[in-house]
Amino acid sequence: MPVRCVRAAREDGEEIRQRLVEVDALSAEYEIEVVDGEIYIPLDPAADPRSIDPDLEVVERDLARRQSQTFPADILGFEPSYERLGDIVIVDEDDDATARTIADAILASDVRARTVVNRASPIEGELRVRRWDVLGGNGTETVHREYGCEFELDISEVYFSPRLATERHRVIEQVAPEEHFFDMFAGVGPFVVPAAKRDAECVGVDLNAAAIEYLRRNAERNGVADRVNVIHGDVRSITGYDGWAERLVMNLPHSADEFLDTAVELAGDDCRLHYYDIQHDADPFGPGEAAIRDAAEPDYDVEIETRHEVRSYAPHELNVCLDARLRQR
Question: What superkingdom does the record give (predicted)?
Fold first, then answer.
């Protein structure tokens, strides 16, 4: 059966394989194939293509199965849908019996999984956490690896989406050494830690005390604690950073507009703002751009440098990012 794989020049194969391993996107179920100077590297069925470098070519190809391993589809007779976060496998099934059948097959297979969970609620509350049904295993804490960084977290206590890996990487690639980088809703540090690894001076703020503790641990785990200031609290009450930021991240897409006045206070004379929003696909960028201009003008000139669709969020709704440059007049 055809499987998704990355097609590339043979000489680039090992580098690409390593990159796929870093984001848990390499399939262990199928063999890597080399044909006429091209290499075909199979993707894990749970991998989100957006967690892979968008410049890579993803194709479908019939590849040979590895004979020495057992996978969930071998047990179930169909390919289940799941995603992986560290050594936790996440399924999303409305029927409890189906979820447990899939979990049993995952745990009986050779998929690297310590725990299997099913989503038991939407993201809820001010701290944006979700309830889970633990279907197998006994823990919701894990270590997720992404673009050379490691993030320790507990999915029952913090919000984290591995599907946003490529988007985070897109932003981080713009960060310059010594830059003043401020994440207003930092979580466990998926923006802050890699920014600090690029030698930026970073501040991460979050209302969730558990997320802040993991951010401290992750800064230490990745060797950047000396470049990260971790602050627990509502970013609107933080003092001492007015006019400090040269880059601001606002990844709170349902309500970031409520914090734009604070963002303008934090912005320095020349500041890049990464503003995340969820809007109807009829006008995904207009409301956010209007909100940014309303908050920043006339004190700042506002230039929207990038209007970027991150992913589909729901029918007719898009998760988008506006990259804005604010220059003080």
Answer: Archaea
